[in-house]
Amino acid sequence: MKSKIVSSLIIIVTFGVALARMANCSKKVILHWDISGNLTSQGTENLIILLPMISVIIFAIFKYYERNPYKLSTLPRIEESESNTKMLVKHIKTMAMLTLLAMLYITMCSAKMADIRLLIIVPFLLLTMGYYAHTRKKIKAGFCAQAK
To answer: Which of 122, 130, 111, 93 is nearest to 2 (CA)?
Structure first.
């Protein structure tokens, strides 16, 4: 329940950032940056509303997998147990919040409310990949222990 509230708040803030940017007089929003954070493409201010809409779609996909966690699994033959279900649901909720936070950051950068920084993006990606690897290892360990 708490993760649903936090995710919903992140989506609301993302919509707020996009709408605030649209209300601003500027006619352009940032669409793309290069690896150094330099602007490479701009578009009309109406395009920024797509980012919160994508966030809603991402949230809906994660909610689907939260209800059906074994459909997300890339590990073969994970035993459907209570502990595996809890672990998968927790993983899905955490990944949903991390993904929505990334969308909020991208929206803020596109709205020129923040600068895009590799010092933010790279540690965030490493954290996300590390969390995925940790959860996958725990599920595999549980699978191997159950198979014996």
So the answer is: 93
